[in-house]
Amino acid sequence: MINQEQYKIIENCVMKDYKNTAGIVVMKKGQLMLEQYFNDCDAESMVHVYSVTKSIVSILIGIALDQGFIKSIDQKVLDFFPEYVIKRGEKLIQQITLRDLLIMQAPFKYRIPPYLKYFKSDDWLQFTLDLLGGRKPVKTFNYTPLIGPDIFTGILRRASGQTVLEFAREYLFEPLGINVEKSIYFNSKEEQMAFNKAKDINGWAADLTGLNAGGWGLTLSALDMAKIGQLYLDNGLWESKQIVSEQWVKMSTKRQNFWEQEKLAYGYLWWVIDEEKHSAAAVGDGGNVIYYNAEHDLVIAITSLFVPRGKDRLAFIKNTIEPLFIG
User: Fold this and answer.
1) What is the pTM of this model?
2) Which in 57, 125, 236, 281 has the greatest CB count within 10 A?
């Protein structure tokens, strides 16, 4: 465990620059080194972790491959939705693969993401498929934070015959001791805004068809997040059981694409921090992060209450938290 002086360094940094932090958990060599909470949160507090959801979905895709529900990430997206009616003149959508979506190079038919229409839609999968494609293929990085990942949860539901939450519980959450209670449905904008700010809602957002969101909507505790980080640090192994294949962990945290604008490498819905050190992160809006560094056998998880334009927690981790545990 860290000493009081190190504890105060982290606390002071939170109070100065990261005031919306809910919880910080640090694991080293599989042992709990730090568990610290803020803003009236505790170990039971569940917060909306935003795009960290995408990295969880990546794990589920890996498990679906391991279990034989999906044959290959080079399968075409529309292989899973043969009933989808392709609009006249559209050809590109027929060529898009799971790999294109995983590495964020799939094209979409919009310049400005139509978020308001998305949230008002009763069927997020249909809405997203209708925007997939266009006339110009994208071969570079094309980050789609919300409109896109629901295709993966649609594929998981179709391929497994289970709801995504049921699939996640059976193959990931329950083996790790993570409790996600229910699918959450919103009847108004106000309900969704309350969900974004809550500390005690346990579940995973879903549309009116029962499809859990692929790019957002999951609530987790800081300890839950640390478990996911430990799973990936240990190459998919948890308590002597292979939850997801080592190959998938390595491929999903290997550079598969690169965002030139931000100078960030991307794997399969995971951010690649340092490929040589086997260090990667799941990053969600507002300051939610799962970070692990295999070279130092270190996992750092941070949950945060949403604020617009929350400060970068990776900088906080790299500059303040990590140095306290690798010296």
Assistant:
1) 0.97
2) 57
